[in-house]
Amino acid sequence: MNETGIPIPGWAEKVADSLGAGPHVVVSGISVSGNIHAGNLREVLVAEAIAGALRARGEEVRFIFHADTIDPLRKIAPTIPRSYEEYIGHSLSHIPDPEGCHVSYAEHFLVPFEEALREMEMEIEVLRSHELYEGGVYTDVTREALDHTEELRGILQDVTDRQMPEHWSPYLPRASSGKLTGMRVLEHLPEQTSVVFADEDGFEEAADYSKGEGKLGWRVELAARWKALGVTFEPFGKDHTTSGGSTETADRMAREVFDYPVPGRYEYEWIGLKGRGDMSSSRGIVLLPKDLLRIMPPNALRRIILGRDPARRFDLDLGSGFPRFMDEYRAEAGEPFVPFNHLVVVAQTVGGDVDAAAGMLRRGGYVEAAEDGERLARDLAHARTWAEEWAPESMRLGLLDPAESREAAAGLDDEQRAYLREVSERLAPEMDGEAVQDLLYSTAIGRGLKPKRAFAAVYKVLLGKTSGPKAGPFIAGLPDERVRERLSG
Ligand SMILES: [Zn+2]
Questions:
Q1: Of 89, 117, 172, 447, which has the fewest CB atoms closer than 10 Å, so is most exposed?
Q2: Which are the contacts of 410, defined by CB distance < 8 A and separation ≥ 6?
């Protein structure tokens, strides 16, 4: 645990131990070309865990989220209008928001993610790459890259086993059309920090690379970024670390061209959604961190996304397996015990009424969990959202309103209705779960009614179902008059 209460996992301590003395710069870079989903969050959380482990051993740490806002749009995501094809090759920071709610395409996808990071109280600096280029942070490394164009080209050809075009350049200048791709760099003028290039129509233009009038190509930028920001650690997903991948070129470029030591690394595996496959913006399997923060607190989100070991692939189970995860999380976090399933029943019964929920928890025997009203309100909201959006049908419970209950009672036979009336007369507010369970059972026996049909009648008028949570504790937790009203028909 560090001073902010975020647990430091064992694997993160080991990785941090392998890194030398600080100061450290831990970076995580993500494209903003589409939704930044919960799978992407895994990378940021890996970096956060390492930053936390370094801070815990007393190191000075700068923790950066590098948003690739200046990158060119490459393809149109499924939810983006086809008319956006005209922007292919333009910087994401220079393209209008497809929904019109933010200042750019990049911000439309970045802002919700940034808000989730803030909600998680992450100690992270969010840097936008277009601002870094405009502010001159990349000027020196861009000059260096342009001066070593031939070596960089050689490394790319070597590693990827692909012939680069004759006019290949590490730099992508922005033409007056707004496009970054498809230009031909003709000349580098280092004193003027600019390049002369032929645009897509063959006209000569110039771009000043100290002012953000272009960017380094992605593979070169990765190595250049390490140097420009002084990066000492960066995690990568398996899509980058395969043979011939971007880390292989960046490692060689860092050593051979930029004369910069390759930062520490951790390779994480992807996460999927149970029954749905890997998360991917382009395939439409998208779950946003904000969606997950609606069903669990930040530290539970950290735990579920990282899993026991982020080097292993893992499927999020937000359905029937979720209550058990929440119970384990609560136990480890030392929070007052109340089974998540029970909270779900309470939340569905009382809605957002925290006092009523506290009463139900106390009567159900979860006195401690009822004490902190603020936490209870949060937990109830999470449980209710989970029930509505993720719970299997069998766990979706809601106390019928009196009219629905009367309608349900009409579908029962006379024996069942008489049984419910007798129960309602004998029910007393001071009974605990066990006493109510005994009452339900003994009344059925006394009337010669099969317990199965008796209990089915109870569930029917309370929940509109033929089965449900154990009836005694459930009823004991409900306000007495609500139960009586429904049982007496
Ligand atoms: Zn927007």
A1: 447
A2: none
Q: How far is the CA of 109 from the centre of ligand 1 (A)?
A: 7
Token output for 185: 């760099």
Of 103, 66, 87, the residue nearest 180 (C-alpha): 87
Q: Angle at the Cα of 41 (from 228 to 88), degrees rounded to 5?
A: 65
Q: What is the pLDDT of residue 408?
A: 93
Q: Note the pLDDT tens digit of each residue in 5-61.
A: 777 899 999 999 999 898 999 999 988 998 898 889 999 999 999 999 999 999 999
- Distance (angstroms) between ligand 1 centre and the Cα of 445 equals 63
Supply the CATH classification number for the domain 402-487: 1.10.10.350
Ligand 1 centroid–CA 456 distance in Å is 50
Least reliable range by pLDDT among 5-14, 275-284, 340-349: 275-284
Higher pLDDT, 1 or 77: 77
Q: Which run of H or of E encompasses 128? A: strand 125-128
Render pLDDT for 351-403 as a digit per residue (tens, 0 to 9). Answer: 788 998 998 888 877 889 889 999 999 999 999 999 988 988 877 877 888 99
Q: What is the pLDDT of residues 132-154, one digit of tens each?
A: 999 999 999 999 999 999 999 99
Architecture (CATH level 2) of domain 1-165+210-316: 3-Layer(aba) Sandwich (3.40)
Q: How is residue 296 written in tokens?
A: 């669990």
- Look at residue 469 in the predicted model and tell me its pLDDT: 75
Between CA 471 and CA 451 the distance in angstroms is 12
Residue 281: Cβ within 10 Å count: 19
Determine the residue type at 456: A
Separation of CA 98 and ligand 1 centre (Å) = 7
CA of 73 to the centre of ligand 1 (A): 16
Question: Residue 376: is it exposed, middle or buried by C-beta count within 10 angstroms (0-12/13-18/19+)?
Answer: buried
- Percent of the chain scoring above 70 in pLDDT: 97
Q: 106 C-alpha vs ligand 1 centroid, how far in Å?
A: 9
Q: From CA 270, how far away is CA 280, in angstroms rounded?
A: 10
Residues flanking ion ligand 1, Cβ below 5 Å = 97, 99, 101-102, 108
Rounded to the nearest angstrom, the distance between the alpha carbon of 419 and the centre of ligand 1 is: 58
Q: How far is the CA of 110 from the centre of ligand 1 (A)?
A: 9
Distance 99 CA to ligand 1 centre (A): 5
Compute the distance from residue 95 Cα to the ligand 1 centre, in Å.
Answer: 11
